[in-house]
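User: My instructor asked us to take a sequence, write out its structure as C-alpha cells, and then describe one feature of it. I'm not sure where to start. Here is the sequence I was given:
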Amino acid sequence: MQDFTLEDLTPEETITYRHEFAASPEQLYEAFTNPALFVRWFGPKDWKIIPSTLTLEPVIGGRKQFVMRHRQQKTFQAPIYMRFITMQEPHLLEYREALPTPQGQPSDTLIGLRLEFEAGTAVTEDGVGQGTILKLTQGPLPQGVHQQTLDSWKGSFESLAALLAAR
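Assistant: Let's start with the prediction itself. The C-alpha cells for your sequence are:
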C-alpha cells in the first residue's frame, strides 16, 4: 500500500469537520480505542457494527476492522479495514483505511483519517461548558461523496454524544 500524509492532499479532496462534545479528551479517545465502547456508537444512521467482526488493536500498526450491516436491509454490509498510524493519547488518532474491493477484501486504495481532541469550552445541546472540540480530517475523497461522508460522521457523533452523556 502506498502511504501519504493528509497535508499532501488538496482542500478539494479533503473534508474537515469540527464537533463539540460535553466530554473530556480522555473519554473521547477511549470511545475510539475501547472495543466495548466503539461497537456501541459507531456507524452512520441505519448501520451498525456486527460485534463479532470487530478487531480493535489500539497500537501503532494495529488493526481496526469490522463489518457494518444495514439495520433494515440485512444483506447490505460494508467491511472496514483500518490501521493505526499515529496515537498520542488523549489528543490524536490517525488511521489509514484500505477501501474494500468488490469482493470485500482490502485494496491498495487508501483513505486517511485524523482525529484531534482539544480540551476547551464546548457548546452542545446541553449548553456551554468544559468539553472537547474534535477536529476530523479525512481524504482523499471525491467531492461527490463529501456531504454523504459528513452526514455519516454527524450521525455517529450524535450516537457517541448520547453514549457519553449516559455514562
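For the description part of your assignment, you could build on this observation: The longest helix spans residues 146-166. Try explaining in your own words what that tells you about the chain.
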